[in-house]
Amino acid sequence: MWHDFITNTNRPIHKWVHYFPIYERHFHRFRNQTLTFFEIGCGRGGSLQMWKRFLGPFAQIVGIDIDADCKAFEEDQITIQIGRQEDEDFLKQLILEFGPPDIVVDDGSHQMKHITASFNFIYPRMQKNSIYLVEDLHTAYWDEYGGGLDREGSFIEFAKQLVDQLNADHSRNLLIPNEFTRETLSIHFYDSVTVFEKGRHIHKHAPIIPDS
Q1: CA dihedral 133, 62, 49, 199 (to 10 degrees)
Q2: pLDDT score for 7
Q3: Please, are residues 82 and 68 in contact by the beta-carbon 8 Å criterion?
Q4: Angle, helices 155-166/112-122, rounded to nearest 10 degrees
Q5: 52, 88, 124, 179: which has the highest count of C-beta atoms within 10 A?
């Protein structure tokens, strides 16, 4: 994927270098599978083409943006939907049309309230074994995006609370397990990126084998 990025001669791609190992780690198992991929924020169109090349011929790539000019990025396997990422009616229509996404990459407005709104609506509707990735979360520390260190409402603070919810079964009744607890396998924190992996827990604890 890195080689594809540095040799790209198609539409421009703007991604930080350290994102590529993250993409490879979490998305590699989806290659050449039938899937639906949402990218929130189309940029200059190059990343949509990059996902198409990386994921293969069976992937449906859906770009989401508020800029109607992004419709020019449409091509085989890539469709563009114009709307606001925090608009629940718009998101509902997306899922009705394309089905629950297998992968979501949020590279949209980077506004904390928008990121959280998109996550709260889309994530519960995703199937098991899906991935929700939010990037450019350095903005969670910047005031102009609604962020700040330890600031209530930042997506990083929201995600920190979800770590507790992931472990709610072990909280000795201080937290009540919910759908997030039951349907989330893991949360990964990287520099400027947070990744959520969905999947139902069948056996949370290893069986106790008695001494022979």
Answers
A1: 40
A2: 93
A3: yes
A4: 30
A5: 52
Q: Residue 17's CB: how many other CB atoms inside 10 A?
A: 9
pLDDT tens for residues 164-185? 999 999 999 899 999 999 999 9
Distance in angstroms (rounded) separating the CA atoms of residues 34 and 47: 19
User: Rounded CA gap, 71 and 195, in Å?
Assistant: 28
Kindly report the average pLDDT of the chain as a whole number: 94
Active site residues: 110
Token representation of residue 84: 């606001």
209 CB-side CA count, 13 A: 2
CA atoms within 13 A on the CB side of 174: 8
Cα–Cα distance for residue pair 43/65, rounded to 1 Å: 9
**The model's pTM:** 0.93
Chain segment 119-158, per-residue pLDDT in tens? 999 999 999 999 999 999 999 999 999 999 999 999 999 9
| pLDDT (0 to 100) of residue 87 | 98
- Cα dihedral across residues 86, 89, 95, 100: positive or negative: positive
Asked if residues 25 and 31 have their Cβ atoms less than 8 Å apart, the reply is no
Query: What's the rounded Cα separation, in Å, for the pair 193 and 42?
Result: 18
Measured CA to CA in angstroms, residue 127 lies from 21, 52, 103, 147, 182 at distances of 24, 21, 10, 30, 13
Domains detected in the chain: 2-198 (3.40.50.150)
What is the predicted pLDDT for the residue at 201? 64
Predicted pLDDT at 200: 73
